[in-house]
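sry for the spam today, last one i promise. struct tokens for design, 344 residues
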């Protein structure tokens, strides 16, 4: 905050640094009382009468009257968020995600998809031929395929931001060999941005999945998937997506930590779809902050996690891992407008 200057009366004018005028305006809009504002200004060395006059001028300015109308609406929306957060915290086990086996699609759509609630579909993929995948088999079948790999992630505090994803093109065999020599690392990872599942030579992986269960729509498969392959220890920082996702874990385990879109503080410093900390860096560990209601789940091979659109999630691989994320649900699933990190 800049220096407040209130030299008092020279032909009735009061001088105040623009930062302090903005501070007064912001605090009036936040509902801070006149007394508190005036006290803070006088603590900054501004004369009492000048402080009262500054407050009077700010509160009677037409700009503030217009801004107050917009703020009133924002405050009402905040109350709705608070209501949702307080009610959600009253659940029996607010930090867990329900696990359902053999889920009926209409129950899934009514109680989870349309309700924007996460759920684990336990054993969802256990009948898939993909459950037999191993890294060795992948190397044998697809070793020559050139894939996009993110590398040197350790060199960059914001390694996952779209502009920084450090992509290189390598044969898949090299990725698998590196996992053998470095089984725990966050330095290299095949992630969704690489669009590897769209590579025609990799399409045969979809011969090993079964999608005619009423949850996903096999006709919409093309362009609706992301292949994630990497060692143990990969960390996908806290972010949200702009579509609903069914995240299917095939090899190894992953730990997911999720928070609802109603946890609006996470959007405070968001950039693109990532929730950044106050220094503008990825929130990697201990990421969420004490006030945020967080849910945690470990996905075993064969499990699927429904990640509702807008939910913040942070993902850590506990083992070398292969997963496929699907967003080919039957209903329209494009919420590209949902970008709280882009609100100016
Ligand atoms: O598995 C990961 O590392 C991240 C997955 C993810 O964030 C997603 O599918 O949206």
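last one done:
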């Amino acid at each position: 905050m800049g220096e407040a200057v209130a030299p008092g009366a020279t032909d009735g004018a009061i001088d105040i640094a623009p930062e302090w005028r903005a501070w007064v305006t912001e605090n009036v809009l936040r509902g801070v009382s006149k007394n508190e504002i005036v006290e803070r200004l006088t603590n900054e060395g501004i004369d009492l009468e000048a402080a009262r006059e500054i407050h009077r001028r700010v509160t009677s300015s037409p700009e503030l009257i217009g801004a107050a109308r917009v703020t009133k609406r924002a405050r009402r929306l905040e109350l709705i968020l608070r209501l949702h957060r307080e009610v959600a915290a009253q659940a029996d086990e607010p930090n867990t995600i329900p696990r359902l086996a053999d889920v009926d699609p209409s129950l899934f759509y009514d109680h989870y998809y349309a309700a924007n609630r996460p759920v684990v579909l336990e054993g969802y993929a256990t009948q898939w031929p993909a459950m037999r995948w191993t890294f060795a088999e992948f190397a044998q079948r697809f070793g020559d395929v050139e894939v996009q790999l993110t590398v040197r992630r350790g060199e960059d505090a914001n390694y996952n931001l779209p502009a920084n994803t450090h992509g290189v093109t390598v044969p898949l065999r090299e990725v698998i060999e590196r996992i053998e020599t470095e089984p725990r690392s966050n330095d290299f990872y095949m992630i969704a941005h690489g669009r590897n599942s769209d590579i025609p030579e990799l399409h045969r992986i979809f011969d090993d999945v079964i999608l005619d269960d009423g949850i996903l729509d096999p006709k919409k498969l093309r362009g609706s998937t992301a292949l994630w392959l990497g060692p143990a220890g990969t960390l996908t920082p806290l972010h949200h997506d702009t579509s609903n996702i069914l995240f299917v874990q095939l090899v190894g385990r992953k730990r997911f930590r999720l928070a609802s879109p109603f946890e609006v503080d996470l959007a405070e410093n968001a950039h693109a779809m990532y929730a950044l900390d106050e220094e503008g860096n990825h929130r990697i560990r201990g990421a969420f902050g004490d006030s945020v209601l967080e849910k945690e789940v470990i996905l075993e091979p064969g499990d699927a996690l429904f990640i509702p659109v807008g939910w913040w999630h942070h993902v850590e691989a506990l083992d070398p891992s292969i997963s496929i994320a699907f967003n080919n649900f039957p209903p329209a699933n494009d919420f590209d407008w949902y970008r709280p990190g882009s609100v100016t």
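The first strand starts at residue 99 and ends at 101. ok im logging off now
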